[in-house]
Amino acid sequence: MQTLTISYNGTVYELPYTVIKSKRKTCSISINEDASIIFRVPLRTGNRQIMQLAEEKSHWIITHYLKIRENINSKPRSDLSEIQRKALESRYKEAARSYIPKRAAYYNTITGGTYKRISIRDQKTRWGSCSSKGTLSFNWRLMLAPPAILDYVVVHELCHLTHMNHSKAFWQAVEAAYPDYRNARKWLKEHGRELVL
């Protein structure tokens, strides 16, 4: 793994990064949730070109890197043992399988649309999803959120049954079923990373 040196606000940062070459035409930079930096570049891209890209995007790299590091450091620390955590997680999943379908059935009378089944998943970056085949999936960690926040996610995915996009019509449907959706979205954005055991 190579190291990228960036000076920002009087501090010099040595950031490890990985280069992935493939049959692509453009270059891109991404920073994962663990703060790892990845350059994705065409096969024939040389190190000089990569460093030039890094220099051009240095402000973006360092600001996003520091933000992700801050998020990592602000995550609550759990005192549970691994056995305790897994047992508690299992209980929450079981509760989600019972509770979330009831909330979906309730709000479905308001939103309309038809779903075939509901699955409870351990998604890393999503709270819910709706497939084109009518399968609704929800993150079990929603059981750690206030009930109103869980309801918002349920409504959000139910509205995708009739609007498979985030168009104006979609958000109007969400608001009709859940008027306070803006505050719920804001809460998830600010506190979602805290929903861990």
Tag the structure with descriptive keywords.
197 residues; alpha/beta; four-stranded mixed beta sheet; globular
Q: Can you summarize this structure?
A:
With 197 residues, the chain is of the alpha/beta class.
How would you portray this structure in words?
With about 200 residues, this protein is an alpha/beta fold. The chain is about 45% helix and about 20% strand. It is built from 6 helices and 7 strands. The chain has a 4-stranded mixed beta sheet with strand order 1-2-4-3, with helices on one face. Strand 6 (about 130) and strand 7 (about 135-140) form a beta hairpin. Helix 3 (about 80-110) crosses helix 4 (about 145-160) and helix 4 crosses helix 5 (about 170-175). The longest helix has 30 residues, at about 80-110. It starts with a strand and ends in a 6-residue tail after the last helix. The model has no long low-confidence stretch (mean pLDDT about 90).
